[in-house]
Amino acid sequence: MKPGKTYKYRICNAGLKNTLNFRIQGHTMKLVEMEGSHVVQNVYESLDVHVGQCFSVLVTSNQAPKDYYMVASTRFSKQVLTAKGIIRYTNGKGPASPELPEAPVGWAWSLNQFRSFRWNLTASAARPNPQGSYHYGSINITRTIKLVNSASREGGKLRYALNGVSHVNPETPLKMAEYYGIADKVFKYDTIQDMPPAKIGKVVIQPNVLNQTFRNFVEIIFENHEKSMQSYHLDGYSFFAVAIEPGTWTPEKRKNYNLLDAVSRTTIQVFPKSWAAILLTFDNAGMWNVRSEMWERAYLGQQLYVSVLSPELSLRDEYNIPDNALLCGKVKGLPQPKPYTI
C-alpha cells in the first residue's frame, strides 16, 4: 500500500461452517457496505464475519512503513484455526511483528457488534431515493413464521430439520412441477406450522415448501435451541435484520426490534440458544430457497423453499420457462403450459 492512501477491502466468508474474525495488524477498518447495503461508517478493530456474509471496509495506510499481517481466525470452535496474509507498504523498512492481534472471546461481543450495524438512511442505492425512504417499520405484519432448527438420527443417519421437517429434493424440480400445474403430484404446501410445537419429536423427511401470498409483509423468526452457531440465507430477497437476542422469541420481543435503520441484507446469524428476527415483503414471484449456510446442514435437510405465486400470471411478475429447458421427472413429455403474457 502507498503511504497515506485509503484502500477498499472486500471481506467474505465463503467457508462451509465456521465464523471468522478478521483484523489487520496495527490498523482500523471503517465499515462502508454490507451485502449490497450502505451502512453507517463505524470504525472497528476487528469484524466477525459469519458464514455467507460479506463486508466492505476502508483501510488507510497511516502507520509506520513496514509489513503488517492480515489475520483471519475461526470463532466459536474448539480448535482455533488461523490464516495470515501480509500488507506491505511500498516504502516498507521492516518485517511484520510476530505478535498477532488477538480475536475477541465469546459470542456476546459478536452480538453487540451486530447491534452496532446500522443502515445509512441518507445514502443512495440503485435509485434516486435514499435508502431510508422505504419505511419498513411502519408496515403491518401479515404473517409470522418461526423456524426452529433441530438435529436427529433417522434410520441411523444424521438429518437436520426446520420445524421437524428435513427437506429432500424430489425427482421433479419443485418450480417445474408448479409451473406445469402438477405440484400436488410432487409435494405438499405448508407441511410445517407457522408456529412449531414446543417440543419437536421425530423428524420427517420430505420436501418442505411454504406457500406465501404475493406481496405480503412477513416476519420470520429463526430460533436456535442448539449450542452451535447458525447462519441462514434467503434467495431472491433482501430482508431487514431487526433483532438478535438470547433466549426464546415471544410476540412481546417485538418492542426490542430496530424498526428504523436495520440493515437490509441477505444472511442472518443466530447465536446458540438465541433467536433472530427478519422482516421482508415477498414481492418477487418464484420458488426461493431458505437454507442454512452451514453446508453439511443444508445438504442434510436444514432448508426449505418458499413459493411466491403472482395471481396475475403476468410477465410483469415472472418470466416464462425457457423453450429449451430440459424436462425431467413427472413433467417430461407434458405439453408446454400456456405462456405468461403482459
UniProtKB/TrEMBL annotation:
<dbReference type="Pfam" id="PF07731">
    <property type="entry name" value="Cu-oxidase_2"/>
</dbReference>
<dbReference type="InterPro" id="IPR011706">
    <property type="entry name" value="Cu-oxidase_C"/>
</dbReference>
<dbReference type="InterPro" id="IPR045087">
    <property type="entry name" value="Cu-oxidase_fam"/>
</dbReference>
<dbReference type="InterPro" id="IPR001117">
    <property type="entry name" value="Cu-oxidase_2nd"/>
</dbReference>
<feature type="domain" description="Plastocyanin-like">
    <location>
        <begin position="1"/>
        <end position="91"/>
    </location>
</feature>
<dbReference type="Pfam" id="PF00394">
    <property type="entry name" value="Cu-oxidase"/>
</dbReference>
<feature type="domain" description="Plastocyanin-like">
    <location>
        <begin position="172"/>
        <end position="311"/>
    </location>
</feature>
<protein>
    <recommendedName>
        <fullName>L-ascorbate oxidase homolog</fullName>
    </recommendedName>
</protein>
<keyword id="KW-0325">Glycoprotein</keyword>
<comment type="similarity">
    <text>Belongs to the multicopper oxidase family.</text>
</comment>
<dbReference type="InterPro" id="IPR008972">
    <property type="entry name" value="Cupredoxin"/>
</dbReference>
